[in-house]
């Protein structure tokens, strides 16, 4: 069973449409036979992904750095949640366990996670597929910025081709399934 690491917002106050989009990712993962890794507390979009995935029969792993657990007073974590000593171990553990990555809109943490898996794929430190579900264009300025970096010669054109931008969970999972982990560097 393939495992998808999902990065998304966990801030309280995110609008309902983003929560529904996150839940659609959890449902689609379960329907397609994926296990899901969420990287923090079971709140907001991250909670919506986990809850929908579990409700539809998927196995969900929760991995959370101790600092987030302590700051957020997360007392509703499942007994089998993995609490890491620091954020670096947390990122390594998600990266080690996931066969693919799916990113939804989120804050600065989500942005760093997206950039890390994106640059890692570009540099060849991993060859796992990456899909970004961005129906509302939240990441459009980032896409434009990376195009500018390519235009100025700071980044290779191939860096734009190592991930897929999707408007729906179904489209994102279609990409992940068409592009399983590669054996050779992208581009």
Automatic annotation (TrEMBL):
Query: What UniProt keywords apply to this chain's record, in alphabetical order?
Result: Cytokinin biosynthesis, Hydrolase
EC number, as in UniProt: 3.2.2.n1
Q: Which InterPro entries match?
A: LOG, LOG_fam
Gene3D superfamilies for the chain: 3.40.50.450
Q: Does the keyword Transcription apply?
A: no
Catalysed reactions, semicolon-separated: 9-ribosyl-trans-zeatin 5'-phosphate + H2O = trans-zeatin + D-ribose 5-phosphate; N(6)-(dimethylallyl)adenosine 5'-phosphate + H2O = N(6)-dimethylallyladenine + D-ribose 5-phosphate
Q: Does the keyword Transcription apply?
A: no
NCBIfam families for the chain? Rossman fold protein, TIGR00730 family
For this chain, the family text in UniProt reads: Belongs to the LOG family.
The protein's name is: Cytokinin riboside 5'-monophosphate phosphoribohydrolase
- What is the scientific name of the source organism? Catenulispora subtropica
Q: What is the lineage of its organism?
A: Bacteria, Bacillati, Actinomycetota, Actinomycetes, Catenulisporales
């Amino acid at each position: 069973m393939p495992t998808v690491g999902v990065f998304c917002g966990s801030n309280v106050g995110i609008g309902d449409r983003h929560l529904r989009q996150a839940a659609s990712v959890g449902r689609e993962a379960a329907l397609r036979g994926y296990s899901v890794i969420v990287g923090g507390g079971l709140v907001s979009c991250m909670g919506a992904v986990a809850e929908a995935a579990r409700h539809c029969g998927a196995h969900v792993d929760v991995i959370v750095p101790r600092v987030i657990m302590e700051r957020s007073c997360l007392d509703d974590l499942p007994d089998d949640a993995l609490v890491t000593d620091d954020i670096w171990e947390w990122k390594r553990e998600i990266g080690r366990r996931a066969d693919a990555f799916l990113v939804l809109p989120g804050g600065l943490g989500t942005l760093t996670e997206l950039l890390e898996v994106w640059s890692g794929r570009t540099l060849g430190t991993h060859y796992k597929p990456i899909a970004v579900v961005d129906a509302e264009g939240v990441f459009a300025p980032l896409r434009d910025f990376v195009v500018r970096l390519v235009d100025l010669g700071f980044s290779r054109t191939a860096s734009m081709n190592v991930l897929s931008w999707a408007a729906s969970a179904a489209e994102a999972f279609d990409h992940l399934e068409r592009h399983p982990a590669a054996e050779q560097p992208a581009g």
